[in-house]
Amino acid sequence: MEKVPMTAAGYAMLTNELKQRTTEERPRIIAAISEARAHGDLSENAEYHAAKEQQSLNEGRINELEALLGLADIIDLSKLSGDTVKFGATVSLLDEDTEEEKRYMIVGDVEADVKLGRISISSPIARALIGKSVGDSVEVTAPGGARGYEIVEVEFV
């Protein structure tokens, strides 16, 4: 299996979710199953079936988190520097059409969240930016159409 690149913050986020799911969610669901079982006939017990489905989803996510954490390749952002865009870089872009400035940090797939300005290393915009420097223009072909951006700043925070 391939290593999954992520920041230390992304690794901590996944570790916290795993801990929450195993120490809080799992016992809560087990208690719900036990309570529903006490109500009698399981074949027509909607509470029981709902709790079993919750258990299945929770256990599936726990397995997924354990696999991701096992394959994690934690990139130490404090050791990164330079003036070209790479994993961990925070990039300020100027939209060539709207003159709007956008700022994105390039992170691993599992920690990407556009609302927080964190884009996946495998996203079209990140793939277009990798290896470029301040002053370079890039054209990004995305589902919404082609967009042109100029790189204004590259920093490693």
Automatic annotation (TrEMBL):
It comes from the Bacteria. HAMAP family: GreA_GreB (MF_00105). InterPro entries: GreA/GreB_C_sf, TF_GreA/GreB_CS, Tscrpt_elong_fac_GreA, Tscrpt_elong_fac_GreA/B, Tscrpt_elong_fac_GreA/B_C, Tscrpt_elong_fac_GreA/B_fam, Tscrpt_elong_fac_GreA/B_N, Tscrpt_elong_fac_GreA/B_N_sf. One of its GO terms (molecular function) is translation elongation factor activity. GO terms for biological process: DNA-templated transcription elongation; regulation of DNA-templated transcription elongation. The gene is greA. This is Transcription elongation factor GreA. Necessary for efficient RNA polymerase transcription elongation past template-encoded arresting sites. The arresting sites in DNA have the property of trapping a certain fraction of elongating RNA polymerases that pass through, resulting in locked ternary complexes. Cleavage of the nascent transcript by cleavage factors such as GreA or GreB allows the resumption of elongation from the new 3'terminus. GreA releases sequences of 2 to 3 nucleotides. Residues 82-155 form the Transcription elongation factor GreA/GreB C-terminal domain. PROSITE patterns: GREAB_1, GREAB_2. Residues 4-74 form the Transcription elongation factor GreA/GreB N-terminal domain. It comes from Pseudovibrio axinellae. Belongs to the GreA/GreB family. Keywords: DNA-binding, Elongation factor, Protein biosynthesis, Transcription, Transcription regulation.
